[in-house]
Amino acid sequence: MQTEWVDSRRAVEELKELAGLTGGPDGARRVAWTDEWAKARGWLREKLEEIGGVEVETDEAGNLWATAPSDSESAVLLGGHIDSVPNGGWLDGALNTVAALEVMRVLAPQRRPVTLRLVDWADEEGARFGRSLFGSGAAAGSLKPDDVRGLRDRDGVALPDALAEHGIELDRVNEASRQLENAIAYLELHIEQGPVLERMDLPLGVVTGCFGVERHAVRFTGQHAHSGSTPMDVRRDAFIAAARSAVTFRDDAARREDVRATTGFVNVSPAIVTAFNGWCETSLDQRALDADVLAEVLKTAREESEKVAEEEGVSVEWERLWRIEPIPFDEELIELAEEAVTEVAGSSHRLPSGPLHDAAEMARLMPTVMLFVKSLRGLSHTKEEDTPEEDLELSVRALHRLAVKAMEREASRG
Ligand SMILES: [Zn+2]
C-alpha cells in the first residue's frame, strides 16, 4: 500500500467547508438529532458516496458507516463524530471524521489486506439529552434503551421522539452491535482539548487510554461556635479539616505522574462571619490511568483525611458519588501509532486522555488507540477551539499511516 499520497490540505479545506456550512461566528451548530446535524451528515454522506467502491449505510443507532471491502471481512475502523456541542469548536469530532474521509479516499481504491470502514458515531456529545457516547454505547451494548427512555431536552421533547424524527427506533439501537462483528482494530484521531502537547511544543501525541475516575463527597463534622469566645486550641473546625485535607489530596496527585485530584464543590455550615464552621462538605474527583494507582490515591486520601480529622477534633465520612474503571488502550497499537506519529512529525509523546471518547466504548471490545493533535491554549467546546493548520495536516497524515500499519499488521498475522 502507498503511504505518500494522502491530500492533507484537502482535509483542512473540507473542515473549513463544514464549518462554513454548519457553523458561524458563534461556533459550530451540529448538535445531534437536529436539522443542522442532519445537514452535516448529508454533506459527509455525499462525499463518501463519491468514493468508488465504498458502501454507505446508517445503522439502527443512527451511526453512519462507510465500508471499503476487501477479500477479508476483518475490518479496521476509523471513528469520529460530526456532532458538536452548541457554539462548539470547528474541530472537536469533525477532525476525526474528515481526516478519516480523506484516508478512505486514498485507501479505498487500493488493494488492501483487510476491509476499511469509517464510522461517524451518532450523538457523541450528548449535548441535547445529556447522554454522551450514544451511538458507540448502543453498538457496544453499554447503553440500554430503558436507561435513556425518559430523557427530555430543554424544550420537553422526549429522546425517543427526537430519534424517530431521524428514523431511529429506540428499542432497536442495540442491533447496531452487528456492525462490530468483524472489527479487529479501532483508530480515532482527536484534538487534545488540553494544554499538554502545546506546552511540550509537539504537534502530535499517542493516547495511552482514558482515565478511570473515583468521585466522592467528603464530609467533616465538628461543632460550630462563636468566633470571639472560642479559643483557638479547643475548636472543632470542620472547614479547616476539609481545607487541610484538600491540600494533601492535591499534593499527593502532584507528586505522581498523570494523576489528577480536584476539590470541586465546598459547602459549609453555618457560613456566617461570627462563627467557625461545624460542618463542611467537599467533593473529591480523582483520576488515573492505572487501576492500582487510582485505588492507592483513594486509600491515601482517606487515610490523610482521617488523620487530619483526628488532629482537628472532627469526624469525617466518605460517600462515593460515581466511579469508572480506567480504560487502557492496546499496547501494540500504541507502538504502531508512535511509529506513525514519529514518521510524520519527527517525535511523539504518550499521554492519557482526560475526557471520555467513543474510543473508550470500543476499547472494551477490540484493540483500540487514539492520536491527539495539539489544541491551542488547551481550549475546546468553545468557538475559540483551534489548532494550527500545518498540525492538522500532520494529523491527517499520521492517521493515514496508522491505518496502513494496522491493516498490514493484520495481514502479517495471516
Ligand atoms: Zn469529541
TrEMBL record:
Which residues are involved in binding Zn(2+) 2?
D92, E125, H381
Q: Which Pfam families match?
A: Peptidase_M20
Cofactor field: Zn(2+)
Q: How is the cofactor bound?
A: Binds 2 Zn(2+) ions per subunit.
Keywords of this entry? Hydrolase, Metal-binding, Zinc
User: Where is Zn(2+) 1 bound in this sequence?
Assistant: H81, D92, H190
Q: Which Gene3D superfamilies match?
A: 3.30.70.360, Zn peptidases
Which InterPro entries does the UniProt record give?
Amidase_Cbmase, Bact_exopeptidase_dim_dom, Peptidase_M20
Tell me the SUPFAM superfamilies matching this sequence.
Answer: Bacterial exopeptidase dimerisation domain, Zn-dependent exopeptidases
Write out the GO MF terms: hydrolase activity, acting on carbon-nitrogen (but not peptide) bonds, in linear amidines; metal ion binding
Q: In which domain of life is the source organism classified?
A: Bacteria
Q: PANTHER family attached here?
A: ALLANTOATE AMIDOHYDROLASE, ALLANTOATE DEIMINASE-RELATED
Its family? Belongs to the peptidase M20 family.
Q: What is this protein called?
A: Acetylornithine deacetylase/Succinyl-diaminopimelate desuccinylase and related deacylases
